[in-house]
Design a protein that fits this description.
CATH architecture of the largest domain: Orthogonal Bundle
Low-confidence stretches: 98-120, 195-202
Length: about 200
């Protein structure tokens, strides 16, 4: 079967040619996924907002060098992760400048990442909020590379190959990271999860 063209890469090529509307379209489409990824890597919503904005600044600045050799999302999330790692290194050099506050899993936008429920009874909503908190806590406790790999796989739906490009490691390493992350999450969440949502293959 012929490979389907990446519409986001086509938009980015328009950005490369100076098309502002194309850039706005990409920002609108990916500002929430980028913020979600950055917030979960950094575990600090305030810093995540700044870094997420910098991601799109970097996208715009790099437009002239952009080549559609990979999916746009792979390129975008690579920029996001690299800026997160820069921020983590900055924290290590200047620990007094950063308060490591975990993402508030009760925030409405965060809760929607886990389940989109139009109507629910109060008890069910409370259970969903509790589950969201526990998932966030379990994710936050993972090593950064495992956390990034599982988020990109489960939430952003990147392939193993694409995740390997983002993280900068081998395909076998990605599979190992995701396996270890799943096993850890399954163990920590077994009292809260009755289904295999974190262990199902796509």
């Amino acid at each position: 079967m012929p490979v389907q063209p990446d519409p986001d890469a086509a938009l980015m090529l328009r950005v490369k040619r100076g098309d502002r509307e194309a850039f706005v379209a990409l920002v609108e489409k990916y500002k929430q996924p980028v913020f979600s990824l950055v917030a979960r890597i950094l575990r600090d919503e305030t810093e995540a907002e700044d870094v997420a904005q910098n991601v799109f600044i970097q996208v715009h600045r790099s437009a002239a060098r952009y080549k559609a050799s990979a999916k746009f999302t792979t390129w975008l999330f690579t920029i996001a992760r690299n800026l997160c790692l820069n921020e983590i290194r900055r924290r290590a050099r200047h620990p007094a400048d950063s308060i490591d506050a975990p993402v508030d899993a009760e925030d409405e936008s965060s809760a929607r990442q886990f389940e989109d429920v139009k109507t629910s009874a109060p008890d069910e909503a409370a259970l969903q909020n509790e589950l969201a908190r526990k998932v966030e806590e379990a994710l936050a406790a993972l090593p950064e590379n495992q956390r990034t790999a599982i988020i990109l796989f489960q939430r952003q739906e990147l392939s193993y190959e694409e995740i390997a490009e983002v993280i900068g490691c081998s395909l076998s390493s990605v599979k190992s990271l995701i396996f270890r992350a799943r096993e850890t999450l399954k163990e920590r969440l077994k009292a809260y999860l009755q289904t295999g949502g974190w262990t199902d293959e796509k």
